[in-house]
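Hello Y.,

Per our agreement to keep a running log of every chain we model this quarter, I'm adding this entry. I've kept the format consistent with earlier entries: sequence first, then predicted structure.
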Amino acid sequence: MPTKDLIRLVRANNPSPLTGSGTNSYLLGRGEVAVIDPGPDLDSHFAALFAALEPGERITTILVTHAHLDHSALVPRLKAATGAEVLAFGPAHSGRSAIMSELAGQGLTGSEGADAGFQPDLRLTDGEVVSIAGLEIETLHLPGHMGCHVGFAAGDILFSGDHVMQWSSTLVSPPDGDMTAYMATLGALARRKWSRFLPGHGPEVTDPVTRMAELAEHRLLRERAILQALRAVDGATAAELAKLIYTATPPHLMYAASRNVLAHLIDLSCRNLVHMSPGPLATASFHAP
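Predicted structure for the entry above:
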């Protein structure tokens, strides 16, 4: 049976500005079934996952792309009901780069929606291949949105989580979000041949090459806009720069915008393209060289 015929989508009813139409959970395989990203802890979604099974099928494996509550909160209840083994890269704060671990140690916070209690039964590593639901599934470590973020490759199909989506760019909020890592892993993905991506939110990505190029260009445009704004208003904070750059963004999304800007500023600082005044990073002012 072709791989595409072994995949079923069950979308959670948790729409929002940050989740789009809701979280995408995927059933993989027939008979013995894996669930990729069980989603939020909603009674309706819990019931929908079981309703999507054929008579006699059972859930034996749970795969989690990353430990955000909209992807992993249903794991404990689903595991208790099925006895399925839970596979993921690690807990919410695993996989951080050295600089992000250092910044977290200095008190930087901003891990919106992190599932602090998430703990997999088996921790996967980058490049590890496991046999699940009759398929060989390769784990790809894709830090950027979160340090613990992974994608799951079934041949040339990638379950891309929140790393690459069609409907939106990805929130990168330090210290879990890391712009340096995001750009590096986006580039690494682009060097492989893919037929389509199945993301954590929104519709499938039918042209991964074009979409990844768009996302990379979007980030480079944001980077140039930040540098231009700093040359005009030297000594601005991330929040102040966000107001200058995200002029059409609704007020309720400005916090997320400022976190993206902060992620860019940390990356630019590591590359010595901007300088930071001493003080807490979240409220620090930045300067163009």
